[in-house]
Amino acid sequence: MAEEMDEALQKKLKNYVLWLLGRQEYSRRELTQKLQQKEATPEFIEALLDWCEEHNFINEQRYVEGFVRRHIAKKHGLKRIQSEAMGKRIDRALLESVIESFEIDWFGLAQDAYLKKYSNSQDDFDHKEKAKRVRYLMYRGFSYEQIDFAMQAQ
What we know:
mainly alpha, single chain
């Protein structure tokens, strides 16, 4: 493919990006990957995404806030959120500042996650069942202290 992209393709890719952003928030990195799959040139990708940022169609702060909100709604703990953010290459400092600004009660969130899963089960359970419940909450990203607090709530 030639280094120059024709105007029709550029317009098509711009509309594609705007269509994607109309459906949900994307990070600059995610949009770059999507445009690379469509064989856009690096120069065009850079220019288009700069234009999107100028018009506030892409906003990393807003993207990270939505990312954190979605995970809290799923009752995920801090470790899970940090792990998933690393996978998406979200800036760690930005993630930490967003999490701090939300003032999340991790102990309460762990308790909510535990009660949602186990509120209808019996109170007395053996060591094997306790280990299973601890694993469940660890997978969701909670610390031992938060898990201990949550399990005493029942």
